[in-house]
């Protein structure tokens, strides 16, 4: 049984770097519910990384209070704090001369786990992130692809089963296909683990796909809007947030609708040759599949891979029309 997430609270947190005219993070308050994945999205230099690193005290706040699970992080010993917080960064930061096993075992070793327990945990984590332990545990990082390295980075962050994970652009350096795959695997993992996760990205689409909530940050980490992806897309709080949402809000909304949720699946008839989509995939994926296959219909498969019905281009166009009129009414 893994440890689920705990609540994180930032209360009027400020970071003033020495010799800088303005604070990098100014008076930020955020309440992050236990077990949720919250995405920080904002332009380069707005203070996302500084805000995140204050939570595990890689950067010390100038003022304000941060609690995890009700405990004041400033009152905890930094090394003790970091065993409770997994940390994944874009550059991955695997130690190049250490095997995959030893990289994953860094924190368990610090915690004094015995060898057998570490071996069991390493193999369990490799399985969890989709890497065959016998094929991967003795490799060096340079013998892995970028996506595989990123999975090892996630496994390492999860090693001591921390309730909190901080992830700073973890998939930023991967190509779009690998990135999509890593995102999907990560969503599957988080469904099971229910850690409290803060995830930093520049990419608003990634924020919509992954976040239970999104904090849209402006200069000095001022919170421009903090809400669910659906509500941010439907009702951006101001022009700044609107700029992130972009002009295709309705299409992005499709990304939040599972194909399996779509009602009125047409009868299965003459479906041979049509492309397929899994019911847990979203309406945007279904549209994408149809456009790429050059067909006007796609077969929806259930979890067992059996056909459940067919949806057509028109069904999705209808959804889009509904969304556009709803967004219009909210505005
Ligand atoms: N050690 C430091 N000393 C002085 N200023 C710093 C330091 N680290 C960061 N800053 C400044 O603080 C501001 C916020 O930086 P931060 O790295 O938190 O932004 P970010 O939103 O994570 O940016 P990016 O998306 O480009 O990584 C920037 O203006 C940056 O130049």
UniProtKB/TrEMBL annotation:
Family as reported in the entry's similarity comment: Belongs to the ABC transporter superfamily.
UniProt superkingdom: Bacteria
Annotated PROSITE patterns: ABC_TRANSPORTER_1, ABC_TRANSPORTER_2, CBS
Alphabetical list of InterPro entries matching this protein: AAA+_ATPase (IPR003593), ABC_transporter-like_ATP-bd (IPR003439), ABC_transporter-like_CS (IPR017871), CBS_dom (IPR000644), CBS_dom_sf (IPR046342), Gly-betaine_transp_ATP-bd (IPR005892), P-loop_NTPase (IPR027417)
UniProt key word Oxidoreductase: no
Residue span(s) of domain ABC transporter: 8-245
Ranges in coiled-coil conformation: none
Keywords: ATP-binding, CBS domain, Nucleotide-binding, Repeat, Transport
Name recorded for this polypeptide: L-proline glycine betaine ABC transport system permease protein ProV
Signal peptide: none
Domain CBS: 270-326
Species this protein is from: Kibdelosporangium persicum
Pfam families associated with the record: ABC_tran, CBS
PANTHER family cross-referenced by the UniProt entry: OSMOPROTECTANT IMPORT ATP-BINDING PROTEIN OSMV
């Amino acid at each position: 049984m893994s440890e689920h997430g705990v609540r994180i609270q930032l209360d009027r947190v400020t970071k003033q770097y020495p010799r800088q005219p303005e604070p990098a993070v100014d008076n930020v308050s955020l309440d992050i519910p236990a077990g949720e994945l919250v995405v920080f999205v904002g332009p380069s230099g707005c203070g996302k990384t500084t805000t995140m690193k204050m939570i595990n005290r890689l950067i010390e706040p100038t003022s304000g209070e941060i609690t995890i699970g009700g405990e004041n992080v400033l009152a905890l010993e930094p090394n003790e704090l970091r065993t409770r917080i997994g940390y994944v960064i874009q550059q991955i930061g695997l130690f190049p001369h250490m095997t995959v096993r030893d990289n994953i075992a860094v924190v368990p070793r610090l915690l004094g786990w015995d060898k057998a327990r570490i071996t069991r945990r390493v193999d369990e984590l490799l399985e969890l992130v989709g890497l065959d332990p016998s094929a991967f545990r003795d490799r060096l990082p340079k013998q892995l692809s970028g996506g595989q390295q990123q999975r090892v980075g996630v496994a390492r962050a999860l090693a001591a089963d921390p309730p909190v994970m901080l992830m700073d652009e973890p998939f930023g350096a991967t190509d779009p296909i690998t990135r999509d795959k890593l995102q999907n695997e990560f969503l599957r993992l988080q469904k099971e683990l229910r850690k409290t996760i803060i995830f930093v990205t520049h990419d608003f689409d990634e924020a919509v796909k992954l976040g239970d909530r999104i904090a849209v940050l402006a200069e000095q980490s001022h919170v421009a809007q903090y809400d669910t992806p659906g509500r941010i897309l439907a009702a951006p709080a101001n022009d700044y947030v609107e700029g992130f949402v972009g002009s295709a809000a309705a299409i992005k909304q499709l990304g939040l609708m599972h194909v399996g949720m779509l009602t009125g699946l047409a009868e299965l008839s003459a479906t041979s040759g049509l492309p397929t989509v899994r019911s847990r995939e979203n309406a945007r994926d279904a549209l994408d599949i149809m456009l790429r296959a050059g067909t006007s219909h796609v077969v929806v498969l259930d979890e067992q891979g059996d056909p459940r019905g067919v949806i057509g281009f028109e069904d999705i166009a209808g959804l889009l029309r509904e969304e556009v009129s709803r967004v219009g009414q909210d505005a």
